[in-house]
Amino acid sequence: MGLQVNQQGFCQTDEFSPAQTSVPGVFVGGAFRSPKDIPESVVEGSSAAAMAASLLLPLRQAPVAKQFPAEGSLEKRSPRLESLSVTAEKS
């Protein structure tokens, strides 16, 4: 694949661009970059996913406008709610 690795066999990355690899469009995070715990791996994975998503953004299609049926007038309709008669019991 052509990824550069360091002396320890981990993926070589730039300190200020930790998810970017030597191959354009290939991003890295987690244990392949260096030894780390799970929370840090999750953060780096999210960073790599965000960078991949930024490459896909120009390919995104314009959203389709939703069409809703026209609203009718409610002036001639009677209310649908019925009043409830409540009687209180006297003791």
Structure, described:
The structure is a single chain. This protein has 91 residues and is mainly alpha-helical. The protein has one helix spanning 38-56. The chain has a domain at 1-60. The longest helix has 19 residues, at 38-56.
Supply database-style keywords:
91 residues, mainly alpha, 1 helix, 21% helix, elongated
Gist of the model:
This protein is mainly α and 91 residues long. Helix content is 21%, strand content 0%. It has one helix and no strands.
Q: Tell me the quaternary state.
A: single chain
Instruction: Give the DSSP E fraction (strand runs of 2 or more residues).
Output: under 5%
Q: Total helix count?
A: 1
Arithmetic mean of pLDDT: 83
Low-confidence stretches: none
Backbone shape? elongated
Structural class: mainly alpha
Q: What composes the largest sheet?
A: none
User: What's the total number of strands?
Assistant: 0
The H/E string reads: H
From the N-terminal CA to the C-terminal CA, the straight-line distance is 87 Å
